Amino acid sequence: MLDAYQCYPDNLYYHQIINKFKLESLAQILGFKFQGYAEKINCNLSCPLAELSKTLNEKVITPYPLFTITANLIKAELISIKDIWVHLSPADTDINEWAQKKYNTALSVFKRNYEKKLNATDEQKKKDKETEITSIEEVESQLICKNINISLIPSDNQKLWLMEALVKNNSWILFEKLYGSLNSCFDLNSHLPLLNTILNYLEWLIEPVYRPISPTRFTKKPVTLVNFPIHNSNLELQQIHQLDLEGITKIARVCKIVGPAIGKNVLVYTKLCRLFRHYLDHPSTENHNAIYEVLVYICTQILLPAISLVKSNPGVIANLWNIIQDFDFSIRIQAYEEWFTFFIYSNSTLLLEGFNTIKQATPWFKTVTADTVKQKGRILGNLSHNNPGLVFKLANQIIKNYSNLIEPIVNALSYCSNLSMDVIIFLTLRDLSNAPYEDKAKTQLVQEGTIHDIHANFATFLGHFLRKYYTVDLTSIFSFLMNRLFQNQYLDLVILKEIISKMSGSESIEVLNQNQLQALAGGINLQIEAASIANDFKK
């Protein structure tokens, strides 16, 4: 009977027939089937690793209809998940071990090829380049060569495939519990069928509330979506018909599972951004504060880090910026800090994407000049779209040490997004607040009457940057400067003076010549002209 059901896994009438048999032995029979396919995998361990890895990536050893009927029987409560889970391969500890080792390998790649390379000699860099790893596939192949049990590979991980079948038959509550048992280092990008199914489920979930605001509502041809069954079960999530507190909580539950991997599906990502933007334009009168908190959580903890996995798509970044630009600057600053210090280290895929971005950005800063800034500006824009924090950390290192490159870098930023501009301000203020040279600069200012080069470089950069890109949000800058001046950090007056002089086009002249002194005796226009730097400002 199970073999016949396996041939027609979508025919739920088999449940009525199966219910006539002894259900106590049903889980054992299914378990024997899964164990038989797992033994076939172990028998193939004698073949070459490269050939075996290729075979596992091309097809699933265990037939997928077996996972489908198992998920249907679990949802119909003919068997329990506990009875079948023990028969599946591999064990939970082995899955967590694979995820942890994969993460550790990716982290070592990031540190060896980026962090250590900053201070490495040319000979060490050349030696590391021969063993450089740049893709998640190379990380997995490296783990395979370490004699790890081949059943741990997600391409034939029976438990992950059963999880995907549970999502497909809309048993989300049960899937959520099973996924929670996995290691926090587990990366959904390791099992793309499961990731794609969850993203399709999220798209199906928001379809009723998104359809009225969708640009495709004016077209005659309906949009085809992957449908998920609805049987009014306690394990299901119902579609969202109104973006109230219950609806946005459902979105947050699914997004929390997906995490930054949502950036792999640009369509679903864009739909969420449009949906949230529409809510901010037409807020609900009931539970608005609670809905707003959940919306901020999704945008800052999930959608913002997911930018790292979006392949240089300025339209997607613009959709996200349309939302977070309305957030208070303190919320944005906290989100950027968590993005660059925590989320980039959260899984192996983000680590390798960050390393690839840095690998491409480092040569750019070594070759940029005032003559090549127009040709290379577009390259900087593309590099900064998905990982602005890592790119502009390198830019700040250049600005600290080379004042002659400040103006070329500022001119090259014209191809960057508004989100990147906001990140630049955040990183600059963070470097100023964490500057280790503060006490030394104070002493130098008192004894010699000069300003430390690094502090002066940042002041010059902010002055040129805000003069050229005056549409950026200045709230964070002036709040920072006012707080610093309130704490008697008088060196920041240099920054404030530079910003005002560059943006206004005039500056106070400490030493006046004879003609300027005579001009001050005239009217207001003559006084302004005497102290004006209008010609420099126009240039």
Describe the structure.
There is one protein chain. The protein has 4 domains: 2-122 and 130-171, no CATH class; 188-327, no CATH class; 348-504, no CATH class; 506-539, no CATH class. Helices cover 65% and strands 0% of the residues. The protein is built from 29 helices and no strands. Helix 7 packs parallel to helix 18 (348-367), helix 13 packs parallel to helix 15 (288-306) and helix 19 packs across helix 21 (406-412). The model is unreliable at 52-60, 117-121, 144-152, 437-450 and 533-539 (pLDDT under 50).
Features:
mainly alpha; disordered C terminus; 4 domains; 65% helix; 539 residues; elongated
- Largest β-sheet summary: none
Task: Give the C-alpha Rg.
Answer: 29 Å
How confident is the prediction overall: mean pLDDT?
A: 80
Q: What is the total number of structural domains? A: 4
Total helical elements? 29
Percent of residues in beta strands = under 5%
Helix/strand order, N-terminal first: HHHHHHHHHHHHHHHHHHHHHHHHHHHHH
Oligomer: single chain
The level of helicity is: 55-70%
Distance between the termini: 83 Å
**Which structural category fits the helices and strands?**
mainly alpha
* Contiguous runs where pLDDT drops below 50 for at least 5 residues: 52-60, 117-121, 144-152, 437-450, 533-539
Count of strand segments: 0
Based on Cα principal axes, name the global outline.
Answer: elongated
